[in-house]
């Protein structure tokens, strides 16, 4: 399956909520969810009718996939691993998604959105423990040091970030903004996930 290359604003409208896929635009009055809150397409108004239980579960799964930019097969593998771990499956799934390197780069404010953060990782701008990692799905661990490559740090965007990202940094990460470095203090917990995903509905969907 190819990665989605269409309008990301359509995805937000389809899920009926902001997925924060377009950086600063999502925080502005130009956000399409605020301007056109109906699903995209000619029959968007008609599709606002009450959904079935399966339909609501499917929408939660699609929302999670789209927030974190994960393809269907990969998302299903994440679920299988979460199910095999000790603990609550839904929480394990969200924690795994939060530990993705592209998500951490976004959380730190290095990327304006998760797609932008994924691009930074793929293009080799991000280091983990001093080594270049260009795999967006890389799972960060406790005591990992996430930093911007020295050569990349000279770019205008990163120079501005040295004065602070303006983003609320999760408590499980400590950011050293002047040096564009961050330390993973602990693994994220469910309360650290600030998305509106109802993970129990995803578990119910896969349990059918």
Structure, briefly:
The chain has helices at residues 8-15, 32-35, 53-68, 72-84, 89-98, 101-107, 114-122, 156-161, 199-206; strands at 126-128, 131-132, 145-148, 173-176, 181-184.
Please describe the topology of this protein.
Blueprint: H1 8-15, H2 32-35, H3 53-68, H4 72-84, H5 89-98, H6 101-107, H7 114-122, E1 126-128, E2 131-132, E3 145-148, H8 156-161, E4 173-176, E5 181-184, H9 199-206
Antiparallel strand pairs: 1-2, 1-3, 3-5, 4-5
Question: How much beta, percentage-wise?
Answer: 5-15%
Strands of the biggest beta sheet: in what spatial order? 2-1-3-5-4
User: Unreliable segments (pLDDT under 50, ≥5 consecutive)?
Assistant: none
How many β strands by DSSP?
Answer: 5
Briefly note the structural class of the backbone.
alpha+beta
Binned, the helix content reads: 25-40%
N- to C-terminal distance: 23 Å
Q: What's the story with the biggest beta sheet?
A: 5 strands, antiparallel
Rg over alpha carbons: 18 Å
Average pLDDT level: 84
* Helix and strand sequence: HHHHHHHEEEHEEH
The geometry reads as: globular
Q: Helical element count?
A: 9
